[in-house]
Write a structure and sequence with these properties.
This protein has 408 residues and is an all-alpha fold. Keywords: Cell membrane, Membrane, Transmembrane, Transmembrane helix, Transport.
Length: 408
């Protein structure tokens, strides 16, 4: 592959990966405005975010088998078309319950992009480059938290929150046209792949029983949940607790994203000297310590606006370092069923994230304690899974098999 083709392919895959995060981040500054417009509370509006996460998780399990059966592009066309239709529905929405439902369906369409992009990384690039490519995708994905909330804040204050969904629809249309005309099919349809429930369940079962998969997928998912918790809680913490404006919130969100994105790129340098397994271990230890410190400090009121921003920055750095390595190690054992493995991995990450964000809406607390508390729980659980799973890998596969699966 030429350098030009390499760059263009990564850029397209990155755009697909970024569609979901843009759909989340751009409307966050509009939470208070949406609440006023639909005569509800900000906590209720956050449920539309939770429903989006649930839709992403459910859609992962749908698109995985479809990608392995019909190739990578046809299911992508369907998903992006669903996204376009529901974006129009969100624009005309006048009821919070309808918005929650539409966001769920919109997410089902959006997740086709994320599943396809992850699967095509496994199709197109050599195995030992996967962690690097995932980190590059995160770099492109970084445009979302740096641009989307800031733009969303200005759009909301200038034209109202409804216009955000026009912008998202236009973005999806541009991506769809790019995929149709410029992204080659990376996997030929497999007519032998059955879409009956029994074989699909067996396929997912085969993937999840692999010790390397369930260790790094679950540990990574619990760590990654901190990002979802932050996204769901940040409008409440910054705009209602610390009383910042929608525009200021957008800038804070963009600044904090530097931690997540920057760490993912530092990871590329670390991979030159350390294995993915080693990086995951250190990142998760730091995440656990930071999360506990965040919880204790939040409970006793030690952190003001600056302190909350600072400790959240460290948390996001840990997630940004850990996630590319966990994803690469999870998918490393799979080839012909990479679509199923990618879908299951995404469903686990998004499903767990959705469950954690529901806690933010349920607590309805005007403080950072719920955010810090849930972050602490997920980080600790992720650490326990990693400790247990590494022992299972060594026992089931053997030291040589475990080492063979590591991505350097």
């Amino acid at each position: 592959m030429t350098k030009k083709r390499y760059f263009f392919t990564v850029l397209i895959l990155g755009s697909l990966t970024a569609l979901g995060p843009f759909s989340i981040d751009m409307y966050l500054p509009g939470f208070p405005a949406i609440a006023r417009s639909l005569h509800t509370t900000t906590a209720e509006v956050s449920l539309s975010l939770s429903s989006f996460f649930i839709g992403l998780a459910a859609g992962q399990l749908l698109y995985g088998p479809l990608l392995d059966r019909f190739g990578r592009k046809k299911p992508l066309y369907i998903g992006l078309s669903i996204y376009l239709i529901t974006s129009a529905g969100c624009y005309f929405c006048t009821d919070i319950n309808m918005l929650i439902i539409l966001r769920f369906i919109q997410a089902v369409g959006a997740c086709s992009a994320s599943v396809a992009s992850m699967t095509m990384v496994r199709d197109i690039f050599p195995l030992n480059q996967n962690a690097k490519i995932f980190a590059l995708l995160i770099l492109i994905l970084g445009a979302s938290p740096m641009i989307a909330p800031t733009a969303g804040g200005y759009i909301t204050e200038a034209w109202g929150w409804h216009l955000i969904f026009v912008v998202l629809g236009a973005m999806a249309l541009g991506i769809l046209l790019t995929v149709i005309f410029f992204l080659p099919e990376s996997y030929q349809p497999n007519t032998a792949y059955s879409l009956k429930p029994g074989p699909i369940i067996n396929s997912f079962s085969t993937v999840i029983k692999n010790p390397q998969f369930y260790t790094y997928a679950f540990a990574g998912a619990f760590s990654f949940a901190s990002l979802f918790i932050y996204v769901a809680a940040s409008p409440i913490v910054f705009m209602e607790v610390f009383k910042v404006s929608a525009k200021t919130y957008g800038w804070i969100f963009a600044a904090l994203s530097i931690g997540f994105i920057g760490a993912s790129q530092v990871n590329n340098l670390l991979l030159k000297s350390y294995k993915s397994e080693q990086i995951i271990w250190v990142a998760l230890v730091v995440q656990v310590i930071t999360a506990i410190a965040f919880l204790i400090g939040s409970y006793y009121g030690w952190y003001g606006l600056g302190g909350t921003i600072g400790i959240t920055f460290i948390m996001l750095c840990c997630v940004g370092t850990l996630n590319p390595n966990a994803s690469a190690l999870s998918l490393a054992p799979f080839g012909h069923n990479a679509g199923t493995a990618s879908a299951l991995l995404g469903a686990m990450q998004l499903g767990l994230g959705a469950l954690m964000t529901l806690g933010i809406g349920i607590f309805k607390s005007q403080s950072s304690v719920p955010m810090a508390g849930i972050m602490s729980c997920t980080a600790i659980i992720g650490m326990l899974i990693l400790i247990y799973g590494r022992k299972r890998i060594l026992n089931k596969v053997g030291v040589s098999g475990a080492v063979a699966g590591m991505v350097h």
